[in-house]
Amino acid sequence: MILRNTIAGQVLLLLLYARHTFFSSAKTVASEQLSMALPEPRAYLPDAQNLDFVYHDHEELTRFLRATSARYPNLTALYSIGKSIQGRDLWVMVVSSSPYEHMVGKPDVKYVGNIHGNEPVGREMLLHLIQYFVSSYNTDQYVKWLLDNTRIHILPTMNPDGYAVSKEGTCDGGQGRYNARGFDLNRNFPDYFKQNNKRGQPETDAVKDWISKIQFVLSGSLHGGALVASYPYDNTPNSRICRSSALCAMFQTYSAAPSLTPDDDVFKHLSLVYARNHAKMSRGVACKSATPAFENGITNGAAWYPLTGGMQDYNYVWYGCMEITLEISCCKFPPAYELKKYWEDNQLSLIKFLAEAHRGVQGFVFDPAGMPIERASIKIKGRDVGFQTTKYGEFWRILLPGYYKAEVFAEGYAPREVEFVIVEQHPTLLNVTLQASKRVEGVGAGGPSYYRPMQAPQHYRPGGPPPYAAAASTENGIFSTISNGLNSLYSNIFG
Ligand SMILES: *[C@@H]1O[C@H](CO)[C@@H](O)[C@H](O)[C@H]1NC(C)=O
Ligand SMILES: *[C@@H]1O[C@H](CO)[C@@H](O)[C@H](O)[C@H]1NC(C)=O
Ligand SMILES: [Zn+2]
Which residues constitute the domain of residue 123? Predict the structure, then answer.
C-alpha cells in the first residue's frame, strides 16, 4: 500500500490568492535570524508509513496532499491553480508557518515538477520534500527557520496528463513529454526574444495566472534526462542577427553561444548552490558518452541548446522571479527502486536552494505618508531586467555581496536612486520613500500629473509590447527549420 496513513477528512481547498490580507501588526523579522548561521539541515529519510519510494499516480498524489493538509493544518495549505486538459487538478501545496496568508516582508518561493510528463523524478522528490518539511519542522532548526520566514509553494506536477501516459523504466524518448494535446509545455510561454506562435495551453495559462498573482522571488523547475542546473536565458537573440547568413545559421546550430542575463552572477551562484549541495551534480559527469559533461554541473540554457517559449525565461523577464531548470536524473523515468537514492542525492540541494531567497536586498517602497506603493518599478543599475513592488509595497532581489544602486520609479512620484551594500551574512533591508512628483505647468491642466523618469525600465514590461515587436525576428527560412529540427531532437535526447 502506498498511502497507509490517509486521514479521512474534508479537503482544505482554498483559493489563497484572494487571501493575501495585510495584517497590520506584522513585523518584518525575515533577517533577524540567518539561515547561514544555522546548523545544516539534517539528512532525513521520509517515513515509509506516510510516503513510500514509489511513483504515485494522480489519485495517489491527490490523496497524499489532502491527507498532509488535513494532518498539518498549521504548516500546509492545498490549492489548485487550474486543471489539465483531461481535468486533473494542478495541485499546489504551500508549506510555511503561515500557509494561508502571505507574510508581509517575507518571500514566496516555488518549485514546479513534471512539466514534462515523462520526467517524474522531480514530482516524487517534491512529495518527499513536503513530507520532509512537515515532519522536521519541530525538530530541525534549519527547516523551522525556513518555514517561519518563507512561503514555499510546491506544484509537484504541471503535466499530470503527460505523466498518465508515461512508462516507468523509459529513460529516453518523447512519450508522455507533452500535454494531452501534444504541446511541449516548456515551449509554450511567451518568449522574450522571439514571437512564440504556439497556442497557450490550459496548464501553461494556469501557471501564468499563478505567477501573475503571487510575486515569487525564486523558483526551480524540475526535469530529467540530464544532470545539470541550467540557468537563463534559454533563448538567444543571436539567430535573429545571423539569420540571413547560411554559414552563420549553421554555426549557431552547432555551437550554441551562451545567452547571458544581466544577473548572470546571481544565476550562476544559484545554480552552483544546487549543484554543490547535490551528491553528484557538481562533478559534471556526462550521463552518456554521447551527451555533454557540464563543468561544475551548471550551464547556461542557450549554451546547451536554445529554445523558444521556456518557463524560466518567462519567470525572469516578466516577473523578475529567478527560476532555474534542474535536471536531476540521467534517466527520465527510472525504476521506482532508484527513487530513494535520488532523494538522498537531492534533499540538501532542494532545501538550500530555497534559502537563497533570503540573500540580497529586500524592503518596501512608501509614499510620504508611509503608505505602501504598489507596482513601483525597481531596477538595479546595470541590470536591465527590473521588477515591481507588491500591493504591500514589498520587493526582493537576490544579489551577491557588493555595492549597488537601485532606481525606483512609480507613477505620480519623483523617481529616486538609492545606493546600498550587500553583505554575505544577511539580507540588506532597504525602505524607500518616494515624494510626489511636481506637476508640469501648462501641460494637461486638470489632467494627470506628469513626471519624467530618469530612465524607463528597459526590459520589464508585463503586458507591454514584447521586444520582438520592434525587431522582426520570425523564425523562417531553411536554416531556422534545420535548427528547429535539431533543437527538438536535442530536447528529446536531453531534458
Ligand atoms: C521598513 O519598513 C517595514 C515596514 O513598515 C518596517 O517593519 C521595517 O522596520 C523598516 N525597516 C527599516 C530598516 O527601516
Ligand atoms: C495549530 O496551531 C494552534 C494555535 O497555535 C494550536 O492550538 C493547534 O494545536 C495547532 N494544531 C496542530 C495540529 O498542530
Ligand atoms: Zn524536461
Answer: 16-358+485-493
Q: How many domains does the chain contain in total?
A: 2
Record the pTM. Answer: 0.84
What's the gap in Å between 104 CA and the centre of ligand 1? 11
* Tens digits of residue pLDDT in 95-147: 999 999 999 999 999 999 999 999 999 999 999 999 999 999 999 999 999 99
CA 243 to CA 305: how far, in whole Å?
17
List the grid coordinates of 377: 518599478
Spatial separation of the C-alpha atoms in residues 252 and 99, rounded to whole Å: 46
In a domain, residue 476? The reply is no
Give me the sign of the Cα torsion angle 129, 134, 140, 146: positive
Is the CB–ligand 2 distance for residue 7 below 6 Å?
A: no
Residues annotated as part of the active site: 327
Q: Domain containing 144 — which CATH number?
A: 3.40.630.10
Nearest protein Cα to ligand 2, atom 5: 74
pLDDT per position as a tens digit, 336-386 = 999 999 999 999 999 999 999 999 999 999 999 999 999 999 999 999 899
Same domain, yes or no: 342 and 372: no
pLDDT in tens, 389-418: 999 999 999 999 999 999 999 999 999 999
